[in-house]
Specification:
Layout (H helix, E strand, L loop, with lengths): L1 E15 L5 E15 L3 E5 L6 H7 L8 E6 L2 E2 L6 H7 E4 L12 H11 L4 H14 L15 H13 L5 E5 L7 H16 L3 E5 L3 H4 L4 E6 L2 E6 L1 H5 L2 H6 L6 H11 L11 H12 L1
Parallel strand pairs: 3-8, 3-9, 6-7, 7-8
Antiparallel strand pairs: 1-2, 1-4, 4-5, 9-10
Helix pairs in contact: 3-4, 3-5, 4-5, 5-6
Length: 282
């Protein structure tokens, strides 16, 4: 079942110069694709490829210049449906400081459900469940300013979870985190998808994209590639053509293979590589 349908989407930014003249810049150029309910889709591309603009159009933060986006058959350009759409499709951004609106952790997580008019007793349950899901329940009464960057991002994710969306868009959620924080956030994202939440991950980390079921590569506002991780990472020239790099684990796997040691092409991440090596030593 399709949860999001992108149909001939074009989006242009309009910039005004100091002399008052305007100039448009096309960030998304006539693209179409569907996202199936329950799937895990990564969208990658270099800076300026259009991936973050695309993310903001998927739940109505930006309205298409032309074409349309349907969320469960609801048009994101319809102002009367926008809150219904955002209750279905949540979003987590790159900088957690820009998403936290309350000084106390549990109050921040409750903010979204309160704005949806959820009854207080249900809000209490949602907040507790969401904080437990991201491993932050014991910090619920702390001030948000006391948390690390990784912890703040987990609170932002809890805020999205508390709204009980069917889909969550993560717009480069680990870009400002250290390796440990990145690993924890990615673990949470994988768990949410395994629980049935449709997951859309915007990232420039190719090893993160490798964990998805499907990777859409953006280039100059268009879809350059749309395939499984295995298909994409088997084509080094295609990755180079998009200005991207192979995930470190895939690159190492290929270098080992060049030395005559065959390894499964299903190895996509460092964890996959470690698990395989450990298994071979048993």
């Amino acid at each position: 079942m399709t949860i999001i349908s992108v149909q001939n989407l074009t989006f242009e930014y309009v910039r005004t110069a100091e002399d008052g003249t305007t100039k448009s810049y096309r960030a998304i150029d006539d693209i179409s694709f569907d996202i199936e309910a329950g799937s895990f889709v990564a969208i990658v591309g270099r800076n300026g490829s259009g991936k973050s603009t695309l993310a903001k159009t998927l739940n109505g933060l930006l309205v298409p210049t032309s074409g349309r986006i349907l969320v469960k058959d609801m048009d994101t350009a319809d102002d009367n449906l926008i809150w219904d759409i955002r209750s279905k499709v949540g979003m987590v951004f790159q900088n957690p400081d820009n998403q936290i609106v309350s000084s106390i952790v549990e109050d921040d997580v409750a903010f979204g459900p309160e704005n949806l008019g959820v009854p207080p007793e249900e809000i209490r349950k949602r907040v507790d469940d969401a904080l437990k899901a991201v491993g932050m329940y014991k910090h619920r009464l702390k001030g948000a300013h006391m948390l690390s960057g990784g912890q703040k991002q987990r609170i932002a994710i809890a805020g999205a979870i508390a709204m009980r969306p069917e889909c969550i868009i993560f717009d480069e959620p680990t870009a400002m985190l250290d390796p440990k924080g990145r690993e924890k956030v990615m673990e949470i994202i994988r768990n949410l998808n395994e629980e049935g939440i449709t997951t859309i991950l915007i990232t420039h980390f190719m090893e993160e994209a490798a964990q998805a079921d499907r990777i859409i590569v953006m280039k100059n506002g268009q879809i350059y590639s749309d395939s499984t991780p295995e298909e994409l990472y088997s084509n080094r020239e295609k990755i180079r053509g998009a200005g991207l790099e192979m995930p470190p684990a895939v690159d190492l796997r290929e270098r080992i293979a060049e030395r005559g040691i065959e390894m499964p092409e299903t190895i996509m991440t460092e964890d996959d590589l470690v698990d395989y090596i450990v298994e071979q030593r048993r």
